[in-house]
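hey m, so remember when u said the tokens were messed up on ur end? i reran from scratch. heres the input so u can diff it against urs
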Amino acid sequence: MRTIDVKVVTEAVSKLCKDACYYLPDEMMAVLEKSLATEESPLGKEILETLIENAKLAKETDCPICQDTGLTVVFAEIGQDVHFAGGDLYAAINAGVADGYVNGYLRKSSVDDPLFERKNTQDNTPAIIHTTIVEGDKVKITVSPKGCGSENMGALKMLKPADGVEGVIKFVVDTVRSAGPNPCPPVTVGIGIGGNMEKATLLAKHSLVRTVGEHNPNPKYAELEKEILRRVNMTGVGPAGLGGSTTAVAVNIEYAPTHIGALPVAVNLNCHAARCAQVVL
């Protein structure tokens, strides 16, 4: 059994919040630069150049890539041989979020009551925390802040099994097309297939923390990712929704077993500022 003081968790989460909001992942920068070389629209090229320059300036100056630093989503993979000491794990994660957002000068976007008072919590807590228990004595923490422009464009549809592959493709492409400029394309398209309503949406969200360019290990789903990406980029939405051939840079699919009468499909879009940072403790 390995003991980890929750103070270590707080410190790690604080740093991850800032890193995720300041530094565009290297893989995402590489794919934006690659897209610049293949983009067909002159305006699209100009927008991609601006996004690349913006990401470089954010990294050089330790400033947010985008003013919307989102709600803080935290995935924690906890080894079953780990014991946390010194306090509550969720409280420690939220303390890290508060420290990172306040001292990192990140915009606080969380409101306590979603419908009536909508009072800002002033430190972006509480985080949205997803924990899983895995083998071993390590803890992997992934912080993935999610802005509202892209999050608002997510969708869930309870397809019928008879809808099949083409039904899935049509739903995803229609979702991206109707989202237009709102999720700040070029986007990463996260797709969850299977499970039930809540499982499909969680799969879609978790797929977005995958390294850009990494495909599902199942060859059939990997091919489906490539085909959906091809069709999404045929929509002509383009960078910033102003037309072009680079509407999405990646399609990530995660899947799970489901009921014999069900085919749940969820879509979660990530904007060009693919905020994500992780550490293993």
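this time it looks ok to me. Helices lie at 6-22, 26-38, 42-61, 89-103, 148-151, 164-179, 197-207, 219-232. if urs says something different then somethings off w ur setup not the seq
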